[in-house]
Automatic annotation (TrEMBL):
Keywords carried by this UniProt record: Coiled coil, DNA-binding, Repressor, Transcription, Transcription regulation
Coiled-coil region list: 219-246
The protein's name: DNA-binding transcriptional MerR regulator
Annotated GO MF terms: DNA binding; DNA-binding transcription factor activity
Pfam families: MerR, MerR_1
SMART domains: HTH_MERR
InterPro entries in the cross-refs: DNA-bd_dom_put_sf (IPR009061), MerR-type_HTH_dom (IPR000551), MerR_fam (IPR047057)
Keyword flag Transcription regulation: yes
PROSITE patterns: HTH_MERR_2 (PS50937)
Amino acid sequence: MVIFRTHEVAKAAGVHENTIRQYEAQGFLSPVPRGTNGYREYSLLHLEQARLASLALRWPYLGNKQLLIDLVTSAVNGDPGMAMEYAYQYLAHVRVERTYAESAIEFLERWAAGHVLDVSAHPMRIQQAARHLNISIDMLRNWERNGLLTVPRDPNNHYRLYGSAEFGRLRVIRMLVQCGFSLMAILRMLEAFDSGKTSNLREALNVPVEDCGDINAIADNWLNKLVALEERAKRLIEQVGRLIELSQMQKPST
């Protein structure tokens, strides 16, 4: 049997050696025997389990991490069928989120093409506007503070007045926010729109994080991230399949 050292398993999984030790301590690897010299002796099975843990648990991931933890522990604890089921559940979750994001962009493109999204009988004050859109007043104020829209004011009392133009813009903002896009990404897109660039707004929403100077904004470049997460979900399924095949190969012949 081929024996691997910690640094070899770490390199194969694309993680630090300490991460492999953490995987072992957290039950993401089968028990690792030690040689007479006290060194850990990892098998090919451990190596593939480490690859699975790395694929499943590294940031970013979508939704509740517990599903991915359950996936890994099921594979390690002798229930690869359940692990495969979890892997397909995760793939479905990512695909649903991607569909939402794609739909939000189509909604945006319809608005950008000049289609009216809201026809209000008369301008509304902020309380009425919040009720009309079923969102909070604080949310409306926050979007305005972040530069996503400018609301005209009544010249007599200076109250904000939301009309059909503002409601159309707000519906686009709300849908994009609900589908995971960051306020910074939405702001970049709206700045492009306001400057007269009404086509290719999809690209404006998906500027890579390193190009916009905010490395902490996971929701920037959101659609592209969802595409990458879907590809990683498919790799998870393939990796669980490898573990199943390896377990079959290691079964004693009868």
